[in-house]
Design a protein that fits this description.
The complex is a heterodimer of chains A (256) and B (325). By secondary structure, chain A is of the alpha/beta class. Chain A contains seven helices and 13 strands. Chain A has two domains: 208 residues, Rossmann fold (3-Layer(aba) Sandwich); 31 residues, no CATH class. The relative contact order of chain B is 0.11. Chain B is an alpha/beta fold. The chains are: A alpha/beta (256), B alpha/beta (325).
Chain lengths: 256, 325
């Protein structure tokens, strides 16, 4: 099987995000970048699928500036076979344009199945997998919890509200949006890290892939959320504090 | 022109609460745009649902009958919505940021070649454009987003606006249509209900959450008891989930669920940056922690510095008394 996996490089979850003074974006100075956490579940699922289907190959694709090659190397070190870096050429593509370019690459590669995180944890739009599916007229399953693939078909379970689960049967090719709980991503081994250095990474340009697609979204006024006013730390006997808390929730905050 | 269409979700013959919130907001946006608020329901022909939506400002309801879509399907929803939109040409399309809205609205934006702003928490209308506030980095920062395309598509994070009060006696025109879902490459073959019928964290108005200090999964029982007294949903921090005390679908935070309740009560949660990102928009935050230096106290409206195992049972009793009054 030809297996594709989409990864995005994003700021570490422990990063304190700072906004540029003019509100035009995020200050990337001093930010540590990582593979978007949900994409790690996608990489693991791609590798598991390869292991279960002899003769398969996993290609990782990432769209972004040149620094995202670091994330590509992480995926290669975990066990992906080869990679495609799509240089965004500083164009700031939105989900629509990103998906157009990725759909072109995926179509050209002839993948049977594509895995990606359910959303990237930077812009939190959560649109690219579904857009890719639409552009390729593929079925999709988002928030994947379990997957069985056999003979060009898949049975996939996704989690929905309140612990309910939807089970789908679908034909491949298809795209799956992966979530925490699907699997436990492996760590890159030292030999894996060494091998990753010599695995092939092809570089493509977004301008050659996106066709005439242009951004549909216009971003402005990046800002920090309003700070909450300092709250009250209660005092006295614990029992009295609990009574006081209930009174405050009912009479002052009026949430009960 | 200038109409606002909402995708109204329904379940067991009732309109879901998130749809009333969309309806109220749609009605407000429509009056700024000089149009009216309309709704579409998929997989039903039940006019009673139209009446429920009318109470929140919806003037016209499209009931799309489609046997193939009595169960949800992202491809099918995309197809029938695209067909309806081509006909009724709304200026703005709203859906809730729920598992349904999140999975079909991006697909639909691709089919319509328009733009979608996901997980909107606030918005205003400027001329003919909606300026939507979208949290990024799980709410560590905010950004305004405008759609260049038609319709302007948005998914709204549940509990962002509230539904307002229903207007008695309001009516809406019902238009029944037969919709064609087209060829579907995926099919839902089973819907497994969750262990409980509790409201999902992402839609919950009241949440009680436990951290590493819960010490075991058994101890979460005391939070279940507390939650039951006020009808809250139970959540957990990443530390508690990674320690195996709670399943991952209870995780609140940047790599878990982003929640937006009226009341968020954190027990034994220190307040790591990635947890705060997931719950910071809660209207009222209560923190209970033994450590007075825990960062959670800086975000809390009300704090109690004490052992959660002492506080939780007392609080359960006090809530019971209060609820019985």
């Amino acid at each position: 099987m030809k297996i594709g996996v989409l990864v995005k490089q994003v700021p570490d979850t422990e990063t304190k995000i700072k906004v540029l003074d003019d509100g035009s974006g995020i200050d990337e100075n001093g930010v540590k970048f990582i593979v978007s956490p949900y994409d790690e579940f996608a990489i693991e699922e791609a590798l598991k699928t390869k292991e279960a289907n002899a003769g398969s190959e996993v290609t990782v694709a990432s769209l972004g500036p040149s620094r995202c090659v670091e994330s590509i190397r992480t995926a290669l070190a975990m066990g992906c076979d080869k990679a495609i870096h799509i240089d965004d050429e500083g164009s700031g593509p939105d989900s629509y344009v990103t998906a157009k370019a990725l759909a072109k690459v995926i179509g050209d590669q002839g993948f049977d199945v594509v895995f990606c995180g359910k959303q990237a944890i930077d812009d939190d739009m959560g649109q690219v997998p579904q857009l890719v599916a639409e552009f390729l007229a593929w079925p999709q399953v988002m928030i994947l919890e379990n997957l069985e693939i056999s003979e060009g078909k898949a049975k996939a379970t996704r989690r929905v509200s309140g612990g309910a689960k939807e089970v789908y049967e679908l034909t491949l090719p298809a795209i799956f949006g992966c979530d925490k709980g699907l699997n436990t991503p492996r760590y890159a081994s030292l030999p894996g890290i060494m091998k990753a250095k010599s695995k092939p990474v092809e570089t493509l340009k977004i301008s050659d892939l996106k066709g005439d697609a242009n951004n549909k979204l216009e971003y402005s006024n990046f800002r920090m959320p309003p700070e909450k006013a300092p709250g009250k730390v209660l005092s006295g006997e614990v029992g009295d504090q609990v009574k006081e808390l209930v009174r405050l929730l009912r009479e002052e905050a009026k949430v009960l | 022109m200038g109409n606002v269409l909402i995708l109204a979700e329904h379940q067991n013959g009732k309109v879901k609460k998130t749809a009333f919130e969309l309806a109220s907001k749609a009605s407000e946006i429509a009056s700024s745009l000089g149009g009216q608020a309309e709704a579409v329901l998929i997989g039903t022909n039940d006019e009673n649902l139209s009446k429920e939506l009318a109470a929140y400002g919806i003037k016209k309801v499209y009931l799309l009958e489609c046997p193939a879509l009595e169960k949800y399907n992202a491809e099918g929803y995309t197809k029938v919505l695209a067909d309806l939109i081509a006909e009724v040409k709304p200026e703005v399309l709203l859906a809730a940021a729920t598992p349904v809205g999140k999975s079909c609205m991006p697909r639909l934006s691709g089919k319509l070649n328009s733009g979608l702003v996901s997980d909107v928490v606030d918005l205003k209308v400027d001329g003919s454009k909606v300026i939507a506030t979208h949290p990024i980095y799980s709410g560590k920062a905010l950004v305004d987003v405008k759609v260049n395309g038609s319709p302007q598509m948005l998914t709204i994070r549940p509990n962002s606006f509230g539904a307002g009060s229903p207007q008695d006696g309001a009516t809406a025109e019902s238009i029944k249509k037969t919709a064609d879902a087209g060829e579907l490459k995926s099919k839902m073959v089973d819907l497994v209900q969750g262990a409980s019928d509790k409201v999902d964290l992402t839609e919950a108005e009241l949440i009680v959450s436990g951290g590493r200090a819960m010490k075991s999964s058994d101890n979460f029982k005391i939070l279940d008891d507390l939650a039951a007294t006020i009808g809250a949903t139970v959540g957990a921090s990443r530390a508690a989930v990674d320690s195996g005390y709670a399943p991952h679908d209870m995780q609140v935070g940047q790599t878990g669920k982003v929640v937006n309740p009226k009341l968020y009560m954190a027990f034994g949660i220190s307040g790591a940056i990635q947890h705060l990102a997931g719950m910071r928009t809660s209207k009222v935050i209560v923190a209970v922690n033994k450590d007075p230096e825990a960062p959670i106290f800086q975000k809390a409206d009300y704090g109690i510095v004490a052992d959660l195992f002492e506080v939780v049972p007392m609080l359960t009793e006090e809530f019971k008394k209060a609820m019985n009054e």
